[in-house]
């Protein structure tokens, strides 16, 4: 899926990012092309009210940032820029899934460990939108309020 025809140079705008959505089993997902709105606690908390939400971010540093929220509360939050140090309301909740993948507090991230966590703990299978035939909705997000 090439969104550059529709959004041009604004495709990777960090203040008004383009988001593509889809469904995988019981999960609805949003792929944010240029920003990090999904990592904002106010957004993740609101999205998770009455359900659960997972946010996964990757950038070129290389760094992954993972957040898991349930019913408005961030339960587990960690990034891989340094040694993994989970925080949140219950930072050990996903230990049974994290430890076998080498995601151990105080240690560096193994390659693809965070992607495997999302697949193993939640059954979410991450596929690039161009690799499937399902129709995808895309649009631009509004800037976050100050």
Fraction of residues in β-strands? 25-35%
Low-confidence stretches: none
Describe the strand arrangement of the main beta sheet, using strand numbers. Answer: 2-1-6
Radius of gyration: 15 Å
- Estimate nothing, just give the exact number of structural domains: 1
DSSP E strands, number: 6
Overall pLDDT level: 78
How many angstroms separate the termini?
32 Å
For the report, how would you describe the main beta sheet?
A: 3 strands, antiparallel
InterPro entries: DUF6461
Pfam families: DUF6461
What does this structure look like?
- Pfam families: DUF6461 (PF20062).
- InterPro entries: DUF6461 (IPR045592).
- This protein is α+β, with helices and mostly antiparallel strands and 146 residues long.
- It has one domain (4-131).
- It is 18% helix and 27% strand.
- It is built from 4 helices and 6 strands.
- The protein has a 3-stranded antiparallel beta sheet, with no helix packed on it. The protein has a 3-stranded antiparallel beta sheet with strand order 3-4-5, sandwiched between helices.
- Strand 3 and strand 4 form a beta hairpin.
- The longest helix is centred in the C-terminal third of the chain and has 10 residues, at 113-122.
- The protein is globular, with a radius of gyration of 15 Å.
- The protein starts with a helix and ends in a 6-residue tail after the last strand.
- The mean pLDDT is 78.
